[in-house]
Amino acid sequence: DIRWDFSIEKWIKQYTAAVREAFGDRIWFIGLQGSWGREEATFCSDIDMVLILDAVTYRDLQEYRQLLETLPFCEKICGFVSGRKELQRWDKSDLFWLCNDTVPIAGSLEDLLQKIERSHVLQAVKTGVCSVYHGCVHNAVHERSVSVLHSLYKTAAFAMRGFVFLDNGIFIKKQKDLFCYLAPEDREIITWRQQGNIAADLFDTSSAMLLQWASRWIQKD
Q1: pLDDT band at residue 194, thresholds of 50, 70 and 90?
Q2: How far apart are CA 93 and CA 110, in angstroms?
Q3: Which of 85, 102, 192, 218 sits at a 20 to 30 Å CA gap from 155?
Q4: How far is CA 65 from CA 47, 75, 198, in A?
Q5: From CA 216, how far away is CA 92, in angstroms rounded?
Q6: Regarding beta strands 102-106 and 77-83, do their DSSP bridges make them parallel or antiparallel, or are they unpaired?
């Protein structure tokens, strides 16, 4: 696990130096996603890096994998790799999340952000909520996994950032800043998630609450 004295800034310098040595001026963008980018990371958090090259071949992916294995905490590294042309033609509802939840390290995603319209944000939010609903149903009937349920609560909390964006035109990255923008029924979901790992004896109660929340949002006009 990552030690509490871990410096994400120092680690990113190592990462950036390594990818620049490997790919040079082929790099279009480097960014940090996820909980480290939102300053919400814990010792369990992955390091979500975004790397966009001029183009990506399978050989590039092999080289990138070998490069990552030389870095400290390589087992924590995950993220997104793409060619520039593919990203420019990516589904814009996905791009809404990618662009807004990524902290630029080198380059910019601003050109992509300018192409995202309200309809794309609506689709992004609807897809997220539908995913929560489907996940709740499947988990309640088949897996009955507390860890899956916790992940679904995380997805729901992320979808709420889309709700706030639609209503206010701002993307709130930190969960603690999100709370004051939410309706009481949404705050309940956030509060439940903030309790940490959901106790096994509360599985059904927690699942029912999240299913009801997702159902209500799906049926909204």
Answers
A1: low
A2: 15
A3: 85
A4: 14, 11, 34
A5: 25
A6: unpaired
